Amino acid sequence: MEHAKHIIRAVLLLVVAVVVFVLVRHFLYPKSFGLHGYYRFDSVAEYASAAPVHGDRGSCAACHEEKAATLTRGKHASVSCEVCHAPLSTHVQEEARVAPMPVDRSMQLCATCHQKLVARPKGFPQVVLPDHAVEKGAQITNGVCQECHNAHNPSE
Amino acid sequence: MPTIQANNLPPHGDQETPLPVLNRRGFLKHGSRALGASLATLVLCDLADLMQFAQAAGLTPQSGESVLGGYDWTKHRYVYLIDLRKCIGCGACVRACAKENNVPRNYFRTWVERYEVSRTGEEVVDSTNGGMDGFAPHVSGNDVTKAFFFPKLCCHCTYTPCVQLCPVGASYRTLEGVVLVDEKRCIGCGYCVQACPYGSRFIHPVTHTASKCSLCYHRLTRGLTTACVQACPVKARMLGDTIKVGDEVAEIIATQSVRTLQPELLTDPNCFYLGLSKEAR
User: Do residue B100 and residue A113 have CB atoms under 8 angstroms apart?
Assistant: First the structure.
């Protein structure tokens, strides 16, 4: 046993080293770090817990069935309600109405899609604005496009 | 001998008053025992944790369902597809992204560029306010023979330069292939911002941490699609899931000629483009 002294010392040193390592790790590493990779797994849950601002495409139809039906019949069927209105959460939160839903009727918004641009795909309906409105004898006001076009179904 | 011992004791520590007295020796003795015991428990607990980590590393990834509220991240593998032939450059995606993720003004998690190319190969590229307000008619002065809009976002690369060099383990890639930034760990050194070949990261002006497209992770985990995909009126942007059977986007990627940005960098992006022209970078 006398000759095993140096081994015992080495083992003790090892134990001390492990203890120090684990202690240092405990205080330096955040909880859940390394669980699924070199990152804090709780961060994934933090991302997942954020509340969505926009709704689903179908969420508006839950209350505005008629408007949704008009929209799906026309050429704007592929346009999400929230593009011209606002994100769902400004209007509804936890299935309760919190504020009136705003709507952007400006020609500038219509122009983001329908202003004639060389870079747009050729088949896409485009006009030169505001010349188009002036040609039709309309006053350039907020909502000028809606004087002739129904935004929910432009061909109606 | 007993008298000497008694002399050494403090005056109020004699046999007749059995009040527990904590002298220096006693304090050190009991204190070190208590400290040792608590540290030992701590070490044992941590060791158990470490063993669990080691086990998890060797096994198939855990679902993480308990943390993510019923959403199983092993059952998804997201891919993104942008059809440049369809994009009308309306900027609805940029606006939706900014609102959904509270992106600060003049910073973009996704943005749209406009390319106008003349016959002689002259290029005019612009992206006023990231395309958020749409595009004004452009007079580039040369006869434009080819023009297109070019939406960009984080490519959610498989081999991510940004994650590789993060010195604090703040940048990471989830099991489904979403590259995220842990805001609480990020020290804002900006290495990742420089490393990203697609320019899709920025330092948030308020938090001073790296920020980027999260692929609307909070929406994905609720079964919703990303804000940009939902806002796109012409279905130029699509989100797919290669694990899902019969997925439309996965089918397009499998059967049509899709391209990724800067494939020579071997980052293996998961954002694919249809109709990508040679000028687009």
Answer: no
Nearest to B89 among A40, A52, A117 (CB): A117
Confidence of residue B2 (pLDDT cuts 50, 70, 90): very low
For the segment A37-53, the average pLDDT, to the nearest whole number, is: 92
Pick the residue with more confidence: B121 or B195?
B195
Site from B45, B52, B67, B175 to mutate, A interface, most A CB atoms within 10 angstroms: B67
Of all residues in chain B, the percent with pLDDT exceeding 90 is 67
Select from 1.10.287, 1.20.140, 1.10.357, 2.60.120 the CATH code of A52-103: 1.10.287
* 3-state per-residue secondary structure call for chain A: CHHHHHHHHHHHHHHHHHHHHHHHHHHHCCCCECCCCCCECHHHHHHHHCCCCCCCCCCHHHCCHHHHHHHHHCCCCCCCHHHHCCCHHHCEECCEECCCCCCCCCHHHHHHHHECCCCCCCCCCCECCCHHHHHCCCCCCCCCHHHCCCCCCCCC
